[in-house]
Amino acid sequence: MASSVGDEINLATKSDHTTLNQLILQFLPFALPPNTPSHHLYALGISQFYPIYAALETSFGNHLCSNALSPRTAAILEKLHLPELERAQALMDDLEFLLPPSRRDPDAHSVPRLEAFRRHINASLAQKPHLLFAYTWIFYMALFSGGRYIRAKLRAGLGASISSVASPTPLKPAGLTFWDFPGEHDGEDLKSEYKSRVSALSAQLTEEERADIVGEGVQIMVFLTDLVKEVAEIVPSQAIALAMEARADGMDTGFQGPVARIRPPWLLLVRSLFLSVSWSLCLRPWGLWLPGRRSKGL
User: Fold this and answer.
1) CA atoms 53, 55, 167, 104: torsion sign
2) How far apart (Å, rounded) are the C-alpha atoms in residues 61 and 51?
């Protein structure tokens, strides 16, 4: 029996996946208090992913309705499709809750890398519909691995603030529904069903199609890594501007505190380096710096 193409994607992207996870874990705290006084940094950051899920799910739907596919490909995609996994609408609902109307259009504040990635998604899926295996595997399964950890952090850091506004269920606060799935199993049943389908359908793919899918998986991870880096550089300044607008309009920005407390990742890294160097220089006059040199009488 042929191995699951999903497992092949995991193997091919293992190092890239590790790098991406490290970046996300590095930058996630900056979207949470005490490093930011509101949910705007998270909202603007996660909004960068709406066009990706929208492009993926729109393309999938178009292919399912198309008469241009071969009967074999149409049958494979029909079996692969699990509509309960779709996230674009949930993410848009979150953005409508978290952002003012003037900021809800993801295109209005998208980063340059996002537009390049969106063009790539549309072109790739139009030419090779079987690449939907790569996109659904990476973008849906991620929500069940590292996504569970991210959700817990977001609920702990932002949940109390945004759920107090309108959500009747603090355990599943409004504004974070992108991370939740319908049903009593919170999506774990969907995860198992999807992985089972991918495993079964893998045997029906040609060797060329499998190679295409794995290769696209590698490209997706490269795009995502570059996108996360760009978001970390650009979005904080957008969040500061949005928080200032909200304060000027008399709106609640979520957490109490000055807007200036939104700290871009690069600023915290520079501050850490500055403190480290300053501490070393302060210790040097007392002979506590470079103990190896002190033993020689210096």
Assistant:
1) positive
2) 15
Mean pLDDT, residues 230-236: 81
Structure tokens at 153: 């952090």
How far apart CA 18 and CA 34 sit, in angstroms, is: 27
Tens digits of residue pLDDT in 22-57: 999 888 888 887 777 778 888 888 999 999 999 999
50: nearest Cα among 100, 102, 150, 121 = 121
Percent of the chain with pLDDT over 70: 73
User: Tokens representing 3?
Assistant: 């191995």
pTM value > 0.85: no
- HEC per residue, the chain: CCCCHHHHHHHHCHHHHHHHHHHHHHHHHHHCCCCCCECHHHHHHHHCCHHHHHHHHHHHHHHHHCCCCCHHHHHHHHHHCCHHHCCHHHHHHHHHHHCCHHHCCHHHHCCHHHHHHHHHHHHHHHHCHHHHHHHHHHHHHHHHCHHHHHHHHHHHHHHHHHHHHHCCCCCCCCCCHHHCCCCCCCCHHHHHHHHHHHHHHHCCCCHHHHHHHHHHHHHHHHHHHHHHHHHHHHHHHHHHHHHHHHHHCCCCCECCCCHHHCCCHHHHHHHHHHHHHHHHHHHHHHCCCCHHHHCCCC
11-48 burial: b if 16+ Cβ within 10 Å, else e: ebbeebbebbeebbeebbbbbbbebbbbbbbbbbbbbb
Q: Looking at residue 199, what is its pLDDT?
A: 98
Tokens 């505190």, located at residue = 257
